[in-house]
Design goal:
Elements lengths: L1 E5 L14 H12 L6 E3 L4 E8 L2 E8 L6 H5 L6 H5 L1 E11 L3 E5 L7 H10 L5 E8 L13 H8 L5 H23 L2 H8 L1
Parallel strand pairs: 1-4, 1-5, 5-7
Antiparallel strand pairs: 2-3, 3-4, 6-7
């Protein structure tokens, strides 16, 4: 069973913000594939939904600790090297334009606090992550991302526009296919097909 984590912040005020991309995607998929209702898991301090996509069983986990403490919700789920091989973390990436995803494995956090927290909590970088683009694209196809700490923070906590949410919905189909490929074949195959 894949353990799929969607990074974001709990609470209404963060619901549709760019930094909540991981949560938004998993909420879309859980609804689309008729997963169980989201249930609060006290031990994990997270909400959890279970189901299958193309007969591949998955558990979706949305940490209810804030982004910087996401790892606390994941550590109890990862008690062995074998568990690590089933972990997939879905999160926002400013280096990618909206509508693009990149699957990677065994990389550093790249400055993403939520991912950094998970790496620290599970004491390893050896898990799959699906990075989801959140930056607008310029006419020349370059990503228009903000620079400077304050501008970046403001950008991350800004709500998606409706058209951008529609774009996320489109990309969620690709993410569901990639998850099935990771579960039924391999992360390498998923990377070759979806990157």
């Amino acid at each position: 069973m894949l353990i799929v984590v969607g990074l974001g912040n709990p609470g209404e005020e963060y619901k549709n913000t760019r930094h909540n991309t991981g949560r938004i995607i998993l909420e879309m998929l859980s609804k689309k594939f008729d997963f169980s209702d989201w249930k609060e898991d006290q031990k994990l301090k997270a909400i959890v939904s279970k189901g299958s996509i193309d007969e591949e069983k998955m558990i979706f986990v949305l940490p209810n600790n804030f982004m910087n403490n996401s790892g606390k919700s994941i550590a109890p789920l990862i008690t062995s090297k074998k568990d690590l091989t089933k972990l997939v973390v879905v999160y926002d990436d400013m280096d990618l334009p909206i509508g693009r995803i990149k699957i990677s494995f065994d990389r550093s956090s790249g400055g993403h606090n939520g991912l950094g927290s998970i790496i620290k909590a599970v004491k390893s970088q050896e898990f799959v992550r699906i990075r989801v683009g959140i930056s607008p694209e310029s006419a020349s196809g370059k990503t228009k991302k903000p620079t400077g700490e304050e501008a970046v923070l403001k950008f991350l906590l800004k709500n998606f526009k409706d058209a951008e949410l529609a774009e996320l919905k489109k990309i969620s189909k690709k993410i569901s296919e990639a998850l099935v490929c990771i579960a039924s074949e391999s992360k390498e195959k998923a990377m070759s097909l979806y990157n």
